[in-house]
Design goal:
The chain is built from 10 helices and 8 strands. With 357 residues, it is α/β, with parallel strands linked by helices.
Length: 357
Amino acid sequence: MSTERADPGAYDYSQRSARLPAAVNQSNRDLPISIESRLELYELQQVLRQFEQRAYDLFMQNLVKGTSHLSLGMEAVAAGFGLAKRPDDYSFATYRGHAHTIAAGVPLGPVMAELLGRENGLLKGKGGSMHLTSVDHGMMGSYAIIGAHLCIANGAAWSAQLRGTDQVAIAFFGDGTTNIGAFHEALNLAVIWKLPVVFVCENNLYMEYTPIDVVSAVPNPAADRGPAYGLEGILVDGNDADAVFHVASRALAKARAGDGPSLIEAVTYRHGGHSRADPGKYRPADEVEAWLDRDPIPMYHRRLLELGVPEGDLATIQQSVAGRVEEATEYAKNGLHPGPEHLFTDVWADGGSAWRN
């Protein structure tokens, strides 16, 4: 992707032709991926899309408390890695972590209940949208501090390396993280210690409200910086689940074999604003329209039809997923609101406040 430089103070947001997506790479259709795996990728993308659409609806009904950061339009990244990883691998995400949590195998009901702040939620309603965590599923947290989890992922990878478990830590982060010191520190240490970690930049072109190319010295903020740390600069179409699954499988195999870390930049686009409080009006209409035309799910739907999968089979998957999301919604709505007895739990080792005295 080419970019153009400008004075940030005088940046013309209407001149965004350099940020429009390239044509779909049809050669990815020929990647050595079985139809069974592709159907799993399609189903997982449907789960992520329908779950987040429901989360948006519930937010608009004032049932989701606080804010929420959706990854509508970015499902192919989480789906590709979700299918490629092992169940015992570690996942680390940002506050935009719903998709990665579900892709790690966490059931929909407790995730939805957590968004609603209910007692039957994943964290008993105390974590909310931005802090989804399930150690039992290797989902080691969603982090609101930009870049902090990259160093923590290194720690998990080092633990796996010392224990000889062949587990891999996967750290997902946004393009804005590439201008944070922790990004560079984490890459440097991971290479020096040859850690089994895969760093995945979900470059959706905007760091909150600011185009990433306005504040980055290189066109590809993650991939172009990899060689400085002895890493291959891997750039992948983040809207193509096959392409993501392919590069994810290679990177995970490399880490598992003891050959060290990888850095992958997946170029994608969020359909909405940064959060539910952001209408995203700063994005030019032609840019939004062009990326909506590259919605990962309709594109993947068409690919499966071209590969001979009957339309009826895909419709059945969509309907099955809709039923699962409906069940998760009812599970969440039927949960109780946490009572005052939960105030001092999960904040100290003994679950109480006696330590203060």
